[in-house]
Amino acid sequence: MTARLVASAVTKEMLSVGVETVVQCDSSIGRYQAVFEDDGETGYFYALDTEKADNPILDALHIYNVQSVADKDEPSELHLIWSGDGMKAALFINSYPHAIYNFADAVGCCRTGFPPPADASKTHEWDESQMAHFFAEEGK
Question: What are the pLDDT digits (tens) for 71-95?
């Protein structure tokens, strides 16, 4: 069987690495947000809980350092994608997954594995199994 992407919400933007940019996408259930920010020096993916007024940022995942991006002069296509249940968000750049945050399990992962999470019992190391939340077998 072939797998197909399943999403409850998608935001697509063109990205120029190193140009200050903020892109956000709200979960279909309303409470959560996924945000990508390039501040001109680094790119980060943030998981937010909008019901936490004092500090809505649940996690921050490092995506890149601008000076280290080999093709930074080429425009890129950025997608923020939410799983069908609205509880997992993923960041894709040029169709390649860079970060995922699972709001249900309060766990995030990214290709750089940085920074270390506040909870020392967890890790930000890439976890390919998290990709399963965004795909379904054809016919299902």
Answer: 999 999 999 999 999 999 999 999 9
Strands (E), the chain: 3-5, 9-15, 21-26, 32-38, 42-49, 57-65, 76-82, 88-93, 96-102, 107-110, 135-137
Domain residues for the domain of 116 are: 3-137
Cβ atoms of 108 and 99 within 8 Å: the answer is yes
Sequence-distant (6+) residues with CB within 8 A of 87 are 27, 29, 32, 102, 103, 104
How buried is residue 5: exposed, middle or buried, by Cβ count under 10 Å (0-12/13-18/19+)?
A: middle
CATH number at residue 54: 2.60.120
Report the alpha-carbon distance of residue 30 to residue 28 in Å, rounded.
Answer: 5
In terms of Cα–Cα distance, which of 104, 105, 88 is closest to 45?
88
Q: What pTM was computed for the model?
A: 0.93
Q: Is residue 19 helix, strand or coil?
A: coil
Work out how many domains the chain is built from and give that number: 1
For residue 34, give both structure tokens: 């996924």
Percent of the chain residues past pLDDT 90, beyond the cut: 83
